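Re: Re: ligand-bound prediction request (bumping)

Still looking for help on this. To restate: I need the protein modeled with glycyl-adenosine-5'-phosphate bound, output as structure tokens. Inputs repeated here so nobody has to scroll up.
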Amino acid sequence: METLVALCKRRGFIFQSSEIYGGINGFFDYGPLGAELKKNIRDCWWDDMVRRRDDIVGIETSIIMHPKVWEASGHVAGFTDPLVDCKASKQRYRADQLFFSPVVVDGNTIGYVSALESERTAEALQEAAETLKRKKAVQGKLEPVQLRDMTEAKAEEIALVPSPATGEPGSLTAPRSFNMMFQTNVGAMTDASSVAYLRPETAQGMFADFKNVVDTGRVKLPFGIAQIGKSFRNEITPRNFIFRSREFEQMEMEYFIHEDADWAACHRQWINWCKDWLLSIGLPASHLSEFDHPKEKLAFYSRGTTDIMFRYPFGVQELWGIAARGAYDLGQHEKASGVPQVIFDEATKKRFIPHVIEPAVGVDRIFLAILCAGYAEEEVTDDKGNVEKRTVLRLSPRIAPVKVAVFPLLKNKPELVARAQALHKKLQRRYAVFYDESGAIGRRYRRQDEIGTPWCVTIDFETIEKDGSFTLRERDSMQQRRIQEPELMALLDEQVY
Ligand code: GAP
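Reply:
Sorry for the wait, this slipped through. Here it is.
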């Protein structure tokens, strides 16, 4: 992760927000290459999810909505994470990410140990238990640690669990619910009547506008409403770079189906669609897996939720959640607003609230997954036999921030420069292209490898003096071949879609 974060900063993918003021935790800026890459992810999703389908329409709703939306959806009462404070250090922890265990020797509890969730929580706790046993000079057999998180701690245990900040017990509070919605006030008055929220998900925009879309969009069940936009959550512990941040972007789609439809089959279809889509933008199947939420942990209205998981360097984590939410959301808005959220079924002459399947994903999480999967360091041998390190981002041409880099072989030959600039201008009308004339060709290739540019073309004397062909160099194989301009255009047309 450290290498990736450094690359993101060095090459202008991602910066810390407000860095000149020391940064602000959980907020990030996307630099020139990052903004391009992110836009490509959004555009691919929108094209495949909305434009290339006849059953899905796209909308864009406001970030601040009527506060009653969030009461009806359950977010005001229930969009909470369990929070534990350390009174000594003033640190705050998510209770479900803070693990502890009694340290038991020959059946006697000699103390408690704690560790923050990581890839090796159990090992960390076991090591801490061994250290405590040694420190207390207790003889006997140490029993294996029993992992529990702080939401499972009994009242009498809380004072005995050491704070991860100080290593001492006695300063942790009992878990309490912390609402993650950011509050603001609308208008000039700052009182209870003006309280509003920055949306914590884009989904409610689709539910609140359901009737408008049905009345104006000529849609028929089954159909979907999709949206891409910013969401905000006051996460207790933003972490792992852009994986969990406080301002992020979601791409969500609500797929409405008949109340009697086979929801499980539809749910499965959407899980498959999402997986295929991730493969189409270059994520390797080897890094993807599925996680079915256990039935007993689902919200009462939910029929099933499956997460597509991605193997990040910091562990296997949720990338995309696909939830079968029944008629809950529209039902809640019907109750709270008094406006019927129904569809008329011509066949049965009945009105009913449609059910919904919701694939919801974060753009930033896809961005990070793409960088993690694409990053490689290799040893390569140049023409003179020298071995050097090459850093390469193997990004799919669909989402690479620069599709083609155009080089004149030499910058002091006006005819080469003119031809290269002309090609650059022509390509620029349709693609993100980069023109570079400085430094040795090998160095120029390396610079493009590091930012994931799939192809470089070099204009040389043969281009001018012979048949107009130029060198095409492929990023992954590093192979070079001569091609003509129409061939390059056909290649781009096929691979960048
Ligand atoms: N409408 C349902 C919903 O919002 P969610 O699982 O809370 O469900 C959906 O969020 C997706 O949004 C997640 O799978 C993840 O990709 C992304 N996401 C959620 N919280 C995030 C955060 N704090 N930072 C970055 N991405 C986040």
